[in-house]
TrEMBL record:
Domain of life: Bacteria
Domain ABC-2 type transporter transmembrane: 30-364
Protein name as catalogued: ABC transporter permease
A GO MF term: ABC-type transporter activity
Membrane topology: Multi-pass membrane protein
Organism: Aliidiomarina taiwanensis
Location within or outside the cell: Membrane
Residues passing through the membrane, by range: 23-45, 169-193, 223-245, 265-285, 297-316, 345-367
Keyword Membrane (UniProt): yes
UniProt keyword annotations, A-Z: Membrane, Transmembrane, Transmembrane helix
Pfam family for this entry, one: ABC2_membrane_3
Length: 380
């Protein structure tokens, strides 16, 4: 690092630290992701561990008291029609007892709005209870006829869960790590805009370009200042994750989330090249815009491109060996591998970092060439 580049970096850092808006932006994005996911998972844990009674309206319940009693044992309570969950209604025919006694099939109508997702678990609980009651009656009929009920079960599947606490945590943390990447892109965004389009509007950019400093050192210093805030945002996000999730009872789901200090530092180092890429991209877009507000608008749209890639990979679970070596996706793979407890090879980390740094360097070169034009300097 040259002395001029270091001086520009310190100058931009001092300017950014004086701007409370930049500091608040870096901290807000660091808190936003973990806090949002903690609230979401708290609701998931609460719903999964506390099963409330399902209220259904049973029409003709006097014809099948044994069935009504069985459903009540399963937490399915008969109630008035207007109090039923999502309008779930069971209709039992008048000839229920006679059909049951003669060994014939009884048709029970389960009426509900199957397009509604909110109470899908309630509908599934009712359907599951009816299937269980059907199997109980069928087994009793076979036993009375001297036939073993086991003849109905040619193959029985016994589920054995081999998931570890780390693999269960990976399902949750995979989503949280997306917010870590978002912090890298958004924490330094205000600094990048202020050091480019902001300085141009304050008429200080022309003065800086007139100094005996190489344009590339000037651009690189601005990128380093913005990337410093990006790294700070990712560090705060990683530090907040275990602190926030201490208040979420994930142990009820058999999930344990732990992050050692050394692991956090390694992940931050992996994200440093990505922070430089994000800052270079933001500077490039800012100098392409003609005003500060226009730069904010353009960057807001551009930043969603890499985030869209990460979200698609996370929710589609798409895997390919090329993803281990590309910018953004390589860092995402390292984050996922670290929380899965899987060994991450040094070669993909190095190649992914180099490809990210090369792309960041190309963007800085493009910004340097852009600043040779008076249109970029004066926002024409």
């Amino acid at each position: 690092m040259s002395a001029a580049l270091f001086t520009v970096w310190l100058k931009e850092l001092k300017d950014a630290l004086r701007d409370k808006r930049s500091l608040m932006a870096a901290m807000s994005y660091a808190f936003f992701g973990p806090m949002l996911m903690a609230v979401a998972f708290f609701a998931v844990v609460k719903e999964a561990t506390s099963e409330s009674d399902v209220k259904v309206h049973i029409q003709g319940q006097e014809y099948a008291p044994e069935l009504v009693s069985f459903l009540q044992q399963k937490g399915i309570v008969a109630t008035a029609k207007e109090e039923a969950d999502s309008g779930i209604e069971l209709t039992i025919p008048r000839d229920y007892q006679s059909l049951l006694a003669s060994g014939k099939m009884v048709s029970i109508v389960l009426r509900a709005d199957y397009s509604e997702r909110k109470n899908s678990s309630s509908r599934q609980r009712v359907s599951s209870a009816l299937r269980e009651y059907n199997q109980t009656i069928a087994s009793a009929r076979l036993t009375l006829r001297g036939i073993s009920p086991e003849v109905m079960y040619a193959v029985v599947t016994e589920k054995q869960d081999t998931a570890t606490k780390e693999s269960r945590a990976a399902v949750i943390m995979g989503t949280v790590m997306v917010f870590v990447l978002m912090a890298v892109f958004f924490s330094g965004m205000n600094v990048a805009i202020d050091t480019s389009a902001g300085e141009r509007e304050r008429n200080s950019l022309e003065f800086l370009l007139a100094q005996p400093v190489r344009v590339f050192d000037l651009v690189a210093g601005k990128a380093l200042a913005a990337s410093t805030f990006a790294v700070l945002g990712s560090l705060l996000t990683l530090a907040m994750i275990p602190m926030v999730f201490l208040f979420v009872p994930l142990e009820k789901l058999g999930i344990d989330i732990t992050f050692s200090l050394g692991q956090q530092l390694v992940l931050v180092l992996v994200l440093v090249p990505l922070a430089l890429l994000a800052s270079g991209l933001q500077l490039f877009v800012s100098f392409m815009a003609k005003s500060f507000k226009e730069a904010q608008t353009y960057i807001s749209f551009v930043m969603f491109a890499p985030m869209t890639i990460v979200f698609v990979l996370e929710f589609s679970r798409f895997t390919h060996w090329v993803l281990d070596y590309l910018p953004v996706t390589s860092q995402h793979q390292v984050l996922l591998g670290s929380i899965n407890g899987e060994p991450v090879g040094l070669f993909p980390i190095v190649v992914g970092a180099l490809s990210t740094l090369v792309l960041a360097w190309l963007l800085l070169i493009a910004v340097q060439l852009r600043l040779r034009s008076e249109k970029a300097v004066f926002g024409l």
